[in-house]
Structures are given as C-alpha cells and as structure tokens.
C-alpha cells in the first residue's frame, strides 16, 4: 500500500511538472496530455487502494489542477526564468511604441508648409522637419500653408490655412 501511495504522489508530481513544461515550451498540448494521463493514472492508483480514496483524490485534483495552472500562468512571468521567456507587456496606448509619437503630438497647433500635393496624403515641413501627413478633407496644393490639427501615433492630420482664417 505504501508503494501505491508513493506511485500516486510521483504521478501527481509528474503531472504538475508536465503542466509547467507545457506552459514554458511550445509542445502544442502534448505535454499537457501526458500530464493529464499521469493524473488519471494517479486517480486510478487511488481507486485501487479504496473507492472512497479514489473519489476524494479525483475531486481534489479536479479542484486544484485548474487553480495550479492559473497560479503558474500568473506567477511564472514574474520569476527570473519567466522574464526571460515571456514578452513584456504591451504599450499603454496606441502609438506609444512609435518613436515619433511624442514629437508628432507636440506639433499639434503648429503651422507648416505642404512640400508635396496632399491628396490626401503627402509630405509637409513643420519646424524644419519633413513629416508625412494626411489632409483633413480634400486636397492641399504644394506650397500651401497648413495647420497640424491632430496627431495620433505616427499619423498626422493637417488642415489648409486660408486667408479667411
């Protein structure tokens, strides 16, 4: 009986280690399936000891294994190994990863000159920098004065400045 309990504990430990390895390595569910088989064998070994013990073992594993997997998924990225294996979190807002996003946002409200025909996209020059921009509506002729009205990430929207404004 002590041998069966030791076998059962070894199978449970093997199943848990296999679940950990499944999360860490790309085996497409193969290690998870082997881990489930090991846990099934542990439940079978518990049933050979006693029906009540087997039932208790099955219920305990059904309740604890999902909690263990959630614990691994949440804890593992915070460990030194996990920081090396998993990607960093995504940027907070759209365009935060674009290198020009902050500099483009600083240009809102500034005036510039269209360096090419904006139909609706083209090049403008603002504060000595050439920037790709989109006309708010219609087309803007080359050489026309423009006003930067919006910048989101690397997208800059401009409006033509007319004499009436």
Short description:
The chain has 5 helices and 5 strands. It has 165 residues and is of the alpha+beta class. The protein has a 5-stranded mixed β-barrel.
Task: Kindly describe this structure.
The protein is an alpha+beta fold. The mean pLDDT is 88. It folds into two domains: 84 residues; 60 residues, Nucleic acid-binding proteins (OB fold (Dihydrolipoamide Acetyltransferase, E2P)), CATH 2.40.50. It starts with a helix and ends in a 5-residue tail after the last strand. Helix content is 48%, strand content 19%. The radius of gyration is 31 Å and the shape is rod-shaped.
Outline the low-pLDDT stretches: none
Average predicted confidence as pLDDT? 88
Helix content: 40-55%
| Strand arrangement in the largest pleated sheet | 1-2-3-5-4
Overall number of structural domains = 2
Distance between the termini: 92 Å
Largest sheet: 5 strands, mixed, barrel
Alpha plus pi helix count: 5
How would you spell out the order of helices and strands? HHHHHEEEEE
Quaternary class: single chain
Rg is 31 Å
The fraction of residues assigned to DSSP E strands is 15-25%
Instruction: Please count the beta strands (DSSP E, at least 2 residues each).
Output: 5
Shape: rod-shaped
Structural class: alpha+beta
Tag the structure with descriptive keywords.
5 helices, OB fold (Dihydrolipoamide Acetyltransferase, E2P), alpha+beta, 165 residues, five-stranded mixed barrel
């Amino acid at each position: 009986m002590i041998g069966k309990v030791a076998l059962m504990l070894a199978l449970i430990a093997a199943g848990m280690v296999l679940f950990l390895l499944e999360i860490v390595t790309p085996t497409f569910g193969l290690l998870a399936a082997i881990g489930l088989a090991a846990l099934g064998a542990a439940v079978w070994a518990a049933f050979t000891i006693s029906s009540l013990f087997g039932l208790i073992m099955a219920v305990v594993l059904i309740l604890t294994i999902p909690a263990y997997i959630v614990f691994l998924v949440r804890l593992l990225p915070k460990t030194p190994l996990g920081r090396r294996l998993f990607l960093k979190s995504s940027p907070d807002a759209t365009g935060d990863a674009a290198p020009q996003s902050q500099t483009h946002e600083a240009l809102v409200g500034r005036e510039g000159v269209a360096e090419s025909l904006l139909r609706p996209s083209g090049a403008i020059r603002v504060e000595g920098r050439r920037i790709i921009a989109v006309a708010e509506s219609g087309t803007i002729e080359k050489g026309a004065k423009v006003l930067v009205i919006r910048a989101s990430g690397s997208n800059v929207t401009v409006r033509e400045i007319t004499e009436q404004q």
